[in-house]
Amino acid sequence: MCLAMNEQTGEDGFGSHEEVFLRGHEEQDLLRKFLIPTSQRPEILRTLDSKNYNAHTLFDTDDALIETILTREEIG
């Protein structure tokens, strides 16, 4: 999912990456997709969390806080 403007309403919302890129706007921001092996998931998540990139800091909701806490428990 990515943040995208609804062309009909002009409001921001979420859409699939494929849907957004099919629009073909020249001024579209670049998006890079990285495929990371699941075996590296804990290490990557620990590194991102140490730099304060986690669900809670990105989305600032109670649900994201719970997700961050659970992820920290999972990856140790």
Description:
With 76 residues, this protein is mainly alpha-helical. The protein folds into 2 domains: 1-30, no CATH class; 38-75, no CATH class. 46% of the residues lie in helices and 11% in strands. The protein contains 4 helices and 2 strands, in the order ββαααα. It has helices at residues 17-22, 41-50, 55-59, 62-75; strands at residues 2-5, 12-15. It has a two-stranded antiparallel sheet with strand order 1-2. Strand 1 (2-5) and strand 2 (12-15) form a beta hairpin. Helix 2 packs across helix 4 (62-75). The longest helix has 14 residues, at 62-75. The mean pLDDT is 82.
Q: Order of strands in the sheet with the most strands?
A: 1-2
The poorly predicted ranges are none
The end-to-end span amounts to 27 Å
Number of helices: 4
Helix/strand-derived category reads mainly alpha
Number of domains: 2
| Helix/strand order, N-terminal first | EEHHHH
Helix content: 40-55%
Oligomer: single chain
- As a whole number of angstroms, the C-alpha radius of gyration is 16 Å
User: What percentage of amino acids are in beta strands?
Assistant: 5-15%
The biggest beta sheet is recorded as:
2 strands, antiparallel
DSSP strand tally: 2
Whole-number mean pLDDT: 82
Global geometry: extended
